[in-house]
From TrEMBL:
Function summary: Component of the TRAPP complex, which is involved in endoplasmic reticulum to Golgi apparatus trafficking at a very early stage. Also plays a role in chromosome congression, kinetochore assembly and stability and controls the recruitment of CENPE to the kinetochores.
Compartments, record wording: Endoplasmic reticulum-Golgi intermediate compartment; Nucleus
Protein name: Trafficking protein particle complex subunit 12
One Pfam family this sequence matches: TPR_6
Subunit structure: Component of the multisubunit TRAPP (transport protein particle) complex, which includes at least TRAPPC2, TRAPPC2L, TRAPPC3, TRAPPC3L, TRAPPC4, TRAPPC5, TRAPPC8, TRAPPC9, TRAPPC10, TRAPPC11 and TRAPPC12. Interacts with CENPE.
Upper classification of the organism: Eukaryota, Metazoa, Chordata, Craniata, Vertebrata
Annotated keywords: ER-Golgi transport, Nucleus, Phosphoprotein, Repeat, TPR repeat, Transport
InterPro entries in UniProt: TPR-like_helical_dom_sf, TPR_rpt
UniProt TPR repeat ranges: 264-297
Species whose genome carries this gene: Cebus imitator (Panamanian white-faced capuchin)
Spans traversing the lipid bilayer: none
GO biological process: vesicle-mediated transport
GO CC annotation: endoplasmic reticulum-Golgi intermediate compartment; Golgi apparatus; nucleus; TRAPP complex
Length: 379
């Protein structure tokens, strides 16, 4: 802002920082909810320092608690969200493979009497495994996910045999056992989903599709979304016939369940199928139909505008995107929408910089410190 709009405009921008919120999980939630992720990373560091960890404590003996590990997970997840992958890897390093003795409840019998098992949040294990693919090592990610999958499968097998999670004798009620089985089935499905995403990144489409199919067995309620996703993978690699087959399967599934969301999924798939065939007029018709049913659908709105652009209707396309952003800036000031809008400004006029700066002002008044201004193409 300072560079493009000057000191006066920059001084007007008011954003929360680590010092302006309560130094607790409540303050942390506040920063995350208003997308001030950098400030949230800073607050996590301060809270960890209060736990005897964090800034300047590297290499020193430490005691973990469930709270401190939750803070580490939030901090690491935010670093990944901000694209600071190398920082996240460095901060993960002292945790090793997340199986060190001091990461278990049994290591602190005076704090957690009678409790057993790992204190590491399951999502932190998934993050630890997924991080490597963002650093250009997808095979290492896959290996780590396979190890997590093996443990989840073993725990699930123990529970289904009437044993405790660790294979010992169990004293839980049947209801408690069923709740544990549901939890670990859900976790196994989550691991499979991460593995499928990793295979997709590696462009191993056959194995990725197999993995997505296996996810359906753990999340049957997500079948329409997962089948749609597989169909869109086929579209991306130019296999129109396979995409059509999957989209037809989605229609059969949604006919049984009904509901508005099912209809929107079917129409969205038809629109993408026409996009894949370069039939922008038909694609636009389906996106418009979705907007009649769900006027706030950002994906349909954005894609309808792109279709208009390809149909040679630049002014109409611009009007649609501008109306969308003005209608609900908090909801629609999305990076992909703004990237499309600034690209259209460049096509429309050689004086696009003023309009881009107006967008920057709008973003500054609504967005937190995590917004990536590169989408505005100001440089």
């Amino acid at each position: 802002m300072l560079r493009f709009l000057g000191e006066k405009a920059a001084a007007k921008r008011q954003v929360l920082n680590a010092s302006s919120v309560e130094p607790s999980f409540v303050g942390l939630k506040q920063l995350i909810s208003c997308r001030n992720w950098r400030a949230a990373v800073d607050l996590c560091g301060r809270l960890l320092t209060a736990h005897g960890q964090g800034y300047g404590k590297s290499g020193l003996p430490t005691s973990h608690t469930t709270d401190s590990l939750q803070l580490w997970f939030v901090r690491l997840a935010l670093l990944v969200k901000l694209g600071l992958f190398q920082n996240a890897e460095m901060e993960f390093e002292p945790f090793g493979n997340l199986d060190q003795p001091d990461l278990y409840y049994e290591y602190y019998p005076h704090v957690y009497p009678g409790r057993r098992g790992s204190m590491v949040p399951f999502s932190m294990r998934i993050l630890h495994a997924e991080l490597q693919q963002y650093l250009g090592n997808p095979q290492e990610s896959l290996d780590r996910l396979h190890r997590v999958k093996t443990v989840c499968s073993k725990i699930l097998a123990n529970l289904e045999q009437g044993l405790a999670e660790d294979g010992g004798t169990s004293s839980v009620t049947p209801e408690g056992r069923q709740a544990s089985i549901r939890l670990w089935r859900s976790r196994l499905g989550r691991v499979m989903y991460s593995m499928a995403n990793c295979l997709l990144l590696m462009k191993d489409y056959v194995l990725a599709v197999e993995a997505y199919h296996s996810v359906i067995t753990y999340y049957p309620e997500q079948q329409p979304q997962l089948l749609s996703g597989i169909g869109r993978i086929a579209l991306q690699i130019g296999d129109i016939k396979t995409a059509e087959k999957y989209f037809q399967d989605v229609e059969k599934v949604t006919q049984k369940s009904g509901g508005l969301q099912g209809k929107i999924t079917v129409l969205m798939n038809r629109a993408f199928l026409y996009l894949g065939q370069n039939n922008f007029a038909e694609a636009h018709r389906f996106f418009t139909e979705i907007l009649r049913m769900d006027p706030a659908n950002a994906v349909a709105n954005n894609n309808a505008a792109v279709c208009l652009l390809y149909l040679g209707k630049l002014k109409d396309s611009l009007r649609q995107l501008e109306a969308m952003v003005q209608q609900d800036p908090r909801h629609y000031l999305h990076e992909s929408v703004l990237f499309n809008l600034t690209t259209m400004y460049e096509l429309e006029s050689s004086r696009s910089m003023q309009k881009k700066q107006s967008l920057l002002e709008a973003v500054a008044s609504k967005e937190g410190d995590s917004f990536n201004t590169q989408c505005l193409k100001l440089a």
